[in-house]
Design goal:
The chain has about 425 residues and is mostly helical. Helices cover about 75% and strands about 0% of the residues.
């Protein structure tokens, strides 16, 4: 039966409508996108710097050099004429080769003084070039600063806009929540009144039905508990029979197998940097020693893997030989050494469980190892049988009996818990008497 309640849609009150109108008006006044008035001038100044030619100096194109050249040439000619005149006076006023030579030397001396001016002129030209570059950079920096100032003012305007929007959104949201809260409270009050009336009617109707369902579920649970107990007893009898057939003529409790400590001692006998006990073949042992001493650790680990050592055995040998875990992890990852289930599982089965552990310890260790591989149920059963065959018959029988008792106790506890939860639910709902 439907609840006698009519839903009334929410309508904003006066304050909420006023806040919403103010928000919409503020959102419409968003500042335009930034368009800097200095952008083109900054780009032009940057191009002048980037496109400026490298410094070069042509002495003949230097106007100052030409002025010096004219001056020194004129002075040199005058000095040469004076020198020739003086030399001629010494010989009675007649010209001679000595006078010509002396005059030429005087003239060349003035030209040499002109050449001495070239480094000075080069330095002056380079200073002018450098100064022009600095002026261009100063102009670019000034224009960039003005552009940044203008952009900062634009960002301030945008920030003020968003702060105003945030304030108005918060004010609108607060007004909406207050108005909607009053509406929701009223609607909830009306709904709860209608719901309470409907729930009372449903309670009266469901009481009889819940009682009937409980009686049926109780009968079904009792039947299932009896069937589970029968099935568990059948599985126990079958396992016990299978064990009796397998243990006819098998090894007794006195059998002794190699322990992990004995295996480690066999593998690493000979101490660090020695391969004794790892390879029986002298050639393989020598190759192992050479690669180990040469730091070829990946090849060393590969030889151990090819020889049939498991990942745990490889790690044990590597630790004894001072090979870092980095090389071991890299080798195992690249060669999928840990992906061979037979080696790892057989290792667990062949451990000295008979002397150092219980049947339950062995089964738990085997199941943990098998969980790392994608095995079928038949394979799991095969490995479990191989493990149980290594224990004395009386220990396996005791273990199976313990498992059977645990299974039956667990089923009884689960059924009792389910009944308790169901009864508590009925009492809590007022459906039980």
């Amino acid at each position: 039966m439907a609840i006698n309640y009519t839903y009334k849609p929410y309508e904003e009150d006066e304050e909420t409508r006023r806040r919403r109108a103010a928000l919409e008006a503020a959102e419409a006044s968003k500042p335009a996108a930034y368009s800097g008035s200095y952008a083109s001038a900054v780009d032009e100044a940057l191009k002048k710097i980037q496109n400026r030619e490298k410094f070069s100096y042509d002495v003949n194109a230097d106007a100052l050099y030409q002025q010096y050249k004219d001056s020194y040439t004129r002075q040199g000619k005058l000095a040469m004429e004076d020198t020739i005149g003086k030399a001629a006076a010494l010989t009675g006023g007649y010209g001679n080769s000595y006078a010509q030579t002396a005059g030429q030397q005087t003239y060349q001396a003035y030209l040499d003084r002109l050449n001495d001016r070239i480094p000075e002129l080069y330095a002056a030209a380079y200073d002018r070039y450098r100064k022009e570059g600095e002026d261009l950079k100063d102009e670019y920096a000034m224009l960039s600063a003005r552009d940044q100032q203008e952009y900062a003012r634009h960002r301030d305007a945008v920030d003020d806009y968003y702060k105003d929007i945030s304030y108005r959104r918060q004010a609108y949201g607060d007004a909406y929540e207050r108005g909607y809260g009053r509406y929701s409270d009223e609607q909830n009050r009306l709904y709860q009144l209608a719901l309470a009336a409907q729930e009372q009617e449903n309670t009266d109707r469901a009481f009889a039905e819940n009682k009937r369902q409980y009686e049926e579920s109780k009968a079904a649970a009792a039947a299932k508990l009896a069937e589970d107990a029968r099935q568990a007893n059948l599985e126990y009898e079958l396992a016990l029979k299978k064990l009796e057939e397998k243990n006819k003529g098998t090894a007794g409790a006195g059998d002794v197998y190699e322990t992990e400590e004995q295996k480690y001692e066999r593998i690493t006998s000979g101490g660090s940097n020695s391969g004794k006990g790892i390879f029986d073949d002298p050639t393989e042992l020598a190759e192992f020693e050479d690669k180990l001493n040469g730091g070829e650790y990946i090849d060393v680990l590969r030889m151990l893997g090819d020889a049939g050592y498991t990942s745990d055995e490889i790690r044990t040998i590597a630790k004894d030989k001072n090979i870092r875990d980095y090389f071991v992890d890299l080798y195992l990852k690249n060669n999928n050494v840990d992906l061979n289930p037979n080696k790892e599982i057989n290792k667990v089965i062949k451990e000295n469980w008979i002397v150092s552990g219980t049947v339950e310890d062995g089964v738990n260790a085997l199941e943990k190892t098998m969980s790392h591989y994608n095995l079928t149920e038949e394979e799991k059963e095969k490995y479990t049988d191989m493990l149980l065959d290594r224990f004395p018959y009386n220990k396996v029988v005791a273990y199976l009996a313990k498992i059977k008792g645990q299974q039956q106790s667990k089923k009884v506890a689960q059924q009792k818990k389910a009944n308790d939860i169901y009864l508590q639910g009925q009492i809590g709902n007022g459906l039980w008497y």
